[in-house]
Amino acid sequence: MESKYFILFLLSFYSFIPKISSTTTNVINTNQFITDGDTIVSSGGTFELGFFSPNGSTTRYIGIWYKQILPYVQTIVWVANREKPLTNTSSVVLKVNKPGILALLNDKNETIWSTNTSRSVQNPVAVLLDSGNLVLKDANDDNPENFLWQSFNFPTDTHLPDMKLGKNFKTGIEVYLLAWKNDNDPTPGEYSLHIDPTGYPQGLIRHGARVSARAGPWNGLRWSGAPAPLQTQTSIYTFQFVFNEEEVYYSFSLINNSLLTRLVLTNNGYIQRLTWVDRTKSWHLYLNIPLDTCDTYSLCGAYGSCVIDSSPVCGCLDKFEPKYPQNWQTGDWSQGCVRKTPIDCNKEHGFLKYSGIKLPETNNSQYNKTMTLEGCRQVCSTNCSCTAYSSLDISNGDKGCLFWSGELIDIRELSGRGQDIYIRMDSSDIVSQASSNRKKTGTVLAVSFSLLVAVILLGLILFMYIRKKKKLKLKEDFELPQFQLSLITRATNNFSVNNQIGEGGYGPVYKGVLEEGQEIAVKRLSRTSMQGIDEFKNEVTYIAKLQHRNLVRLLGCCIQGEEKMLIYEYMPNKSLDSYIFG
Ligand SMILES: *[C@@H]1O[C@H](CO)[C@@H](O)[C@H](O)[C@H]1NC(C)=O
Ligand SMILES: *[C@@H]1O[C@H](CO)[C@@H](O)[C@H](O)[C@H]1NC(C)=O
Ligand SMILES: *[C@@H]1O[C@H](CO)[C@@H](O)[C@H](O)[C@H]1NC(C)=O
Ligand SMILES: *[C@@H]1O[C@H](CO)[C@@H](O)[C@H](O)[C@H]1NC(C)=O
Ligand SMILES: *[C@@H]1O[C@H](CO)[C@@H](O)[C@H](O)[C@H]1NC(C)=O
Ligand SMILES: *[C@@H]1O[C@H](CO)[C@@H](O)[C@H](O)[C@H]1NC(C)=O
Ligand SMILES: *[C@@H]1O[C@H](CO)[C@@H](O)[C@H](O)[C@H]1NC(C)=O
Ligand SMILES: *[C@@H]1O[C@H](CO)[C@@H](O)[C@H](O)[C@H]1NC(C)=O
């Protein structure tokens, strides 16, 4: 107490500054100051600012906490002097100076901590808003755009409702979370949480300078790798992602101000959403990210895919194989996978669709917000350095494009909530169906896929041949059924891009469902693939004799006008082996 009076006495030499009054206020003006023991309280009574000590510590900090739940638990949401802890606050004051700075000063009027500003106002005040935002502003100006400084631009480890986490491209200010060192020490820790706009914006957790986990790009509904909320609006908060020329940010808002929720970056690199449960008078863990091992950044390397319920978790994407099989076997997956058939830019390519995945690292990607998926394919196919493309916004069908160049890293399978990506492949790798995204290494499938491709190509020639002869009879005991075009059109939703499961030099492949429920794969032959008919004629007949239709389950064909299609039975996941060996 004595020292407080001492300070008061000291300061009164220069001006008659009273200590903040005992009645609750949310403001510090230039005529007041606060010392240890004093607080200011936001107008709705939700937040309080003052000196505190972390649990199990005696060092003192200026911070903001939830006032109403303080009797149950001290929940610090912001810390001012996290790098300058105080051991003796007896002569320390927090006060507002002109031109508009809030400063923590010692008895020698030396600054321990302060806000900064490039502007000045007539009558500066510090106000604790009911959102938990501490702002420096002119007493008579409530316009947020004119705030001199606000704690929401300099958060510590907590993302509060209505705080914009991200980057303002006009001011250059990046708002990110920086974890505490440990539960009892607000000193900056090792982990930080960013909405990183490099390439296309993504949510990232960094450990030092290195990325430790990635939420992925925003897909119009959520972060690509985030768990899907059961509804887009939960019952306690709403969230939004904004990305335009001025800024990129993620924020959330409470639906009912009496139901509290916050996001915290823990000192060991987890993002936790906590909700206050009044019944138990405690915070409950609502969400914890990273979810599992597969959220470890780039665990399976380039073109690797992490599947949490398989052992080992890492595999290569279908049509890729480990770059270094020896290392891969020991669980050293970081060097990733390579194509079984390398891409030769002088040869013909197609795109293979991989479904149900978390979109890969986008820090080197390009985007277009308005293009259609078909437009994305065209753009990507004209530039051999475009490795893959996907839809940008899936909130209302497919809209916009993401284009990747270089290797694709940090992919995981997300059953039921993943997205589609179309990866550039050598034409020989595009086959009637590959519904599985990844394969374990060294299976017989490589052989069987080549066989399948050969059969498809021969099948094509076969039908040219047949058509020429105006006859579908191949052998005495082998009639190939003809399908009506209208039937196939219906089965494939009018050849919708959503039904497209692959694409080759000879044309796209669609998945379809016949009216009786049978799943089919439809290969729609493009007109450019008509060469070499005569050379293959004999071999086609030979294959037709050999295959007994069962090998690839060719159900029939459809030849009508310009359209030529081969109809196969849709091959479910990994069943090819059993067709061949079963
Ligand atoms: C403070 O730490 C003790 C011991 O670690 C713990 O039991 C208690 O719950 C903590 N209190 C708060 C408010 O975190
Ligand atoms: C705290 O600082 C005051 C004045 O600066 C001094 O008188 C007092 O002895 C100090 N207390 C401790 C415990 O160091
Ligand atoms: C303390 O320092 C601030 C600037 O750092 C200055 O404006 C103020 O007049 C000083 N007060 C005293 C009492 O020296
Ligand atoms: C205030 O300080 C922060 C962090 O030290 C810095 O990034 C920012 O540019 C400063 N602002 C002004 C107006 O000086
Ligand atoms: C907000 O939540 C409180 C506590 O659950 C409840 O009493 C109140 O009716 C709710 N208000 C609204 C507008 O839903
Ligand atoms: C993108 O991420 C990769 C892998 O973490 C890294 O090597 C590369 O430097 C990053 N590129 C940019 C532009 O940040
Ligand atoms: C996106 O694509 C559309 C249509 O192709 C084009 O008009 C537009 O300029 C593109 N936007 C950007 C930013 O490249
Ligand atoms: C092809 O794509 C790469 C990577 O996206 C880009 O740098 C390059 O400019 C593109 N080339 C052309 C001709 O568009």
TrEMBL record:
Pfam families referenced in this protein's UniProt entry, alphabetically: B_lectin, PAN_2, PK_Tyr_Ser-Thr, S_locus_glycop
Reaction(s) catalysed by this chain's protein: L-threonyl-[protein] + ATP = O-phospho-L-threonyl-[protein] + ADP + H(+); L-seryl-[protein] + ATP = O-phospho-L-seryl-[protein] + ADP + H(+)
Signal peptide: 1-22
GO biological process: recognition of pollen
SUPFAM superfamilies recorded: alpha-D-mannose-specific plant lectins, Protein kinase-like (PK-like)
Gene3D superfamilies: Bulb-type lectin domain, Hepatocyte Growth Factor, Phosphorylase Kinase, domain 1
Class of this enzyme: transferase
Transmembrane in keyword set: yes
Entry GO MF terms: ATP binding; protein serine/threonine kinase activity
Entry EC number(s): 2.7.11.1
Membrane-spanning residues: 444-466
Domain Apple: from-to ranges: 345-426
Domain Bulb-type lectin: 25-149
Keywords: ATP-binding, Disulfide bond, Glycoprotein, Kinase, Membrane, Nucleotide-binding, Serine/threonine-protein kinase, Signal, Transferase, Transmembrane, Transmembrane helix
Span of domain Protein kinase: 495-582
Name used for this protein in its record: non-specific serine/threonine protein kinase
Organism, scientific name: Solanum tuberosum (Potato)
Name of the coding gene: LOC102603764
